[in-house]
Write a structure and sequence with these properties.
Elements (H helix, E strand, L loop, with lengths): L4 H11 L3 H10 L4 H19 L6 E8 L5 E9 L2 H4 L2 H17 L11 H14 L5 H19 L5 E2 L2 E5 H12 L3 E10 L3
Antiparallel strand pairs: 1-2, 2-5, 3-4
Helix pairs in contact: 1-2, 2-3, 3-8, 5-8, 6-7
Amino acid sequence: MKVDTALVKQLRERTSISVLECKKALEEAGGDIEKAVVILKKKGMLTSQKKSVRETREGLIGSYVHLNGKIGVLVEVNTESDFVARNEEFKELVKNISLQITASSPSWLDRESVPADVIQQEKEIIAAQYKDKPASIIEKITEGKLNDFYKENVLLEQVYIKDEEITIKEYIDSKIAKLGENIRVKRFIKYEIGE
């Protein structure tokens, strides 16, 4: 199918992905922009998964201090090369992650970082709240409530404050696909006056 160049341009502006990839996605989607976006996301996810095993030794330390000077965040975001670390898009990613931490106050980076005793405590609280339900139902409720707990407290699982359609992990994955290198948030800390 021949794709209109105006559609290609529109998709490129929306996704910042190469013209060739936008054209291929539109051809595959039969000219439907929304379907093309989904196709590009799927391709981006595949790209980011392949790159996730690569070592990240370069990067930036990002910071954000809230206007009133009472909240401050430091975050280390790593990538494979100094070239990408100096890229404006990578710098913007680091800044946006700093803003995310400031706004959403995650306690942990990923699920693996959450201590086992915290997870056990959450499970006990949920079980106590639904003790009158059958065990199989409690198990399903617990799974759902734990997922909600992760979405609230784990940085990579939080909804991205600038695009509520994606998580922070998906946002990072889109940058991995675009910049062509593995990107990893290594650590972060949030300071708040009085805490």
